[in-house]
Amino acid sequence: MGTDFPLIVGMILAAQLDPTGVLIAFGLMQIVTGLIYRMPMPVQPLKAMAVLVIAQKASGNVLFGAGLAIAIMMLTLSATGLLDVLARAIPKSVVRGIQFGLGLQLAQLALKDYLPADGNAGYALGAISFVLILALLGNRRFPPAMFVIALGILFAVFWKGAGAGWIHTLGIHLPTLHVPSKQNVWTGFLFLAIPQIALSLGNSVLATKQLASDLFPERPLTIRKIGFTYSFMNFVNPFLGGVPTCHGSGGMAGHYAFGGRTGGSVIIYGLFYLTIGLFASAGFQQIVIFFPKPMLGVILVFEAVALILLLRDLSGTKSELAIAVFGGLMAVTLPYGYVVALIAGTAIFYLARRRLEHLPR
User: Fold this and answer.
1) Residue 207 belongs to domain spanning
2) Are 40 and 47 in contact (CB under 8 A)?
3) Triad 214, 219, 222: Cα angle to 5°
4) What percent of the chain has pLDDT over 90?
């Protein structure tokens, strides 16, 4: 929630999207994914697209077109088997580097933007959330994130008065059908889908497959299946007015860190969005303005740490650990950093391996 919530809100406000379609589509995709995978396989907004939309205030029609464009790209890669080729070609150290970079970005967002958002009161809420999470971390019966989110909602409703306005907007709301034009698909492909594809290949598909194998080795998962569900979601989302979505290692790490072990955690999360979309989406913008960002920031920090700690399995190989760290730093500091990290990291890995093979024994 610490990553999804702000991106969803930002896109709704920047692209003037209808919250009803966004929330209902997002919730439905969570529920379908939980039923298909039966593990905490996350559904989350496409991060590169979200950042570009928020920064450039792209229109909703272009965003919907970009969703269809990347759905076609991912379906092509999955159906032709190119996803499996990429999975074999891209080394684990590069995947870990992308995860490391994402963890750094999440931590930076939390510490710089979220935690200081409400001044001293926010720091106090953040401290309470931090202690609460530490006390319950790893508790599968009482997952700490549920309590932190509930506490934030209570704070927004009773302390900041968010409950006074939106209660009058309650009612049944359904999404409006959207059909992106060819021009919107092409524009979305050029300006939103191309920058997104590198992060999707690295984090949404390859890193997610790697993390699923790490956390659930007894549950075999194929690259192709992840690609097909990724494309399926983005063939459906635009027509409901929803934002483009993907799977992701960060979301899975977050679910797992807070006790998620089955698809139930994803389904519960989806029901949260689906319920708001169906019954309270008209007042959604007013609600989220009052939710304390420092509490989301604390959740985000724990997700970031979970991602960064994945570097531990490279500790026995100094060269691969160096490639992963270097790749992560490139991802967060360079323009199109994830593209650069993916290509440069893979090239460095094979050059280093080739050099080692030719050293005298």
Assistant:
1) 4-354
2) no
3) 85
4) 30
Asked, for residue 339, whether it belongs to a domain, the answer is yes
Four-point Cα dihedral 179, 183, 187, 188, nearest 10: 20
* β-strand partners of 44: 246
Q: Give yes or no for a contact between 338 and 48, defined as CB atoms under 8 angstroms apart.
A: yes
Query: What are the start-end ranges of the H helices in the chain?
Result: 4-14, 19-37, 47-56, 60-80, 82-89, 92-109, 119-136, 144-154, 163-166, 182-188, 194-199, 208-215, 223-240, 249-257, 264-279, 284-290, 293-308, 318-333, 337-357
Q: Which one-letter amino acid corresponds to residue 15?
A: A
3-state class (DSSP) for residue 194: helix
pLDDT digits (tens, 9 = 90+) for 182-204: 999 999 888 888 778 876 887 78
| Closest to 7 (Cα-Cα) out of 43, 42, 41, 54 | 54
Nearest to 347 by CA among 93, 85, 99: 93
Structure tokens that stand for 121 in this block: 């009161």
**Domain membership flag for residue 311:** yes
Give me the amino acid identity at 211: L
**Paired tokens of 179:** 């059909």
pLDDT tens readout for residues 109-124:
888 888 888 888 888 8
Q: Phi/psi of residue 198, each to 5°?
A: -65, -45
CA dihedral (330, 334, 339, 340) in degrees, to 10, reads: -60
Q: Could you tell me if residue 361 is inside a domain?
A: no
Average pLDDT rounded to a whole number, residues 255-284: 88
- What's the predicted TM-score (pTM) here? 0.74
Say which residues have a Cβ less than 8 Å from residue 85's Cβ, sequence separation at least 6.
none
Q: Residue 45 — φ and ψ, nearest 5°?
A: -65, 150
What's the total number of domains in the chain? 1
Residue 360 lies in a domain: no
CA distance 57 to 84: 35
